[in-house]
Design a protein that fits this description.
Layout (H helix, E strand, L loop, with lengths): L1 H12 L3 H25 L6 E5 L6 H13 L7 E5 L6 H8 L7 E5 L3 H9 L9 E16 L7 H9 L5 E5 L4 H13 L5 E5 L2 H9 L5 E5 H9 L3 E6 L25 H5 L1 E2 L2 E4 L5 H15 L2 H10 L2 E5 L1 H18 L2 H9 L1
Parallel strand pairs: 1-2, 1-3, 5-6
Antiparallel strand pairs: 3-10, 4-7, 4-8, 4-9, 4-10, 4-11
Helix pairs in contact: 1-2, 3-11
Length: 347
Amino acid sequence: MEEVNRRRFLKHATVATAGVSLAAGCLGDDEDDGAEAEAEDDFPTDNITIVIPFGEGGGTDDFARTVAGAADDHLDVSIQFENEPGAGGLNGTQDVVQAEPDGYTLVAFNPPSTPTSWLVQQPPYEIGDLEGVATVGRFPYIIYANTDYEIEDFGDLIDRYEDGEFSQIAGQGVGTMVDVVARTLRDDVGLPWEDYIAYDGGGEVTEAVMSDEVSVGIGTDSGALAGAEEGRLEPIACIPDGGSAVFPDLESIAEQGSAEEGDPIDTLAMLQPSYWAPPGTPSEHIDVIAEALEQATEDEGVQEWAEDTGNVVEYSGPDEASQLLADVLETVPDVVDLDEVREEAES
């Protein structure tokens, strides 16, 4: 209808000079619209920034820099990474929620981790408004210790806590997914730690354990790999049932007889690396980035990294990523007593 009215206007405007001027103005608008449309079609024309809302060296950081880092080969622009740790991933995530929805700023986090932190801490923004871009893999939390203690298995670890050899456990910030997992290990599985020592990111947790600043910690299997290869960190158990691709011989706590298969810990402790865009980002831009990420998961270098590290790399698209976030926000409150976590975090 708009185009028909414009033609009628141009036809009748030729009878007067003023009308000709107006028509010329309309034609100029058409040219501007065409230029804008062409620019939209050319997306991206500038570098894309992926905010990693944790410190360097953790599982989220490793996955993003390896997988998403390979996507720039398919975009003709560079992908840049910014680590913005704090509040269990919520500070960097907030920056992206509030960023310009133009497709040039994304955030990487791993449901159910950061969405659970959001449910616990209730910051003044809606994480559920983020637009899903892609999920690119999965990995579990594991529990590990400094190698000097020669812990045999999860049962031995429980005994040592009960004997008073250990009282602390290290993990990411209070109110984060790792905090929730640690509380579940204590309350439902029987690991009697007393003091939770919080760090900004998984890399800091592994460093603390390797240096024996804290003797036992919880983190991702991929984030623990370097420390294990150096011989300074010993994986004790995979927390969820199903095991670890990074440490294929590592038994789960259920397999070691300290939990039951299907316990809530299984829901909480398996992470899915994913990418998200600010609310309102055009779907056309999201699709371009998602396609590049899909191609990146198939790159030879990424596949070699997955094989060498044992990380599971697998792609699903924007709809699946959006559904994953919605599912986590709906189901975690049924699994976790969020009020209790808040109260304990505040005490």
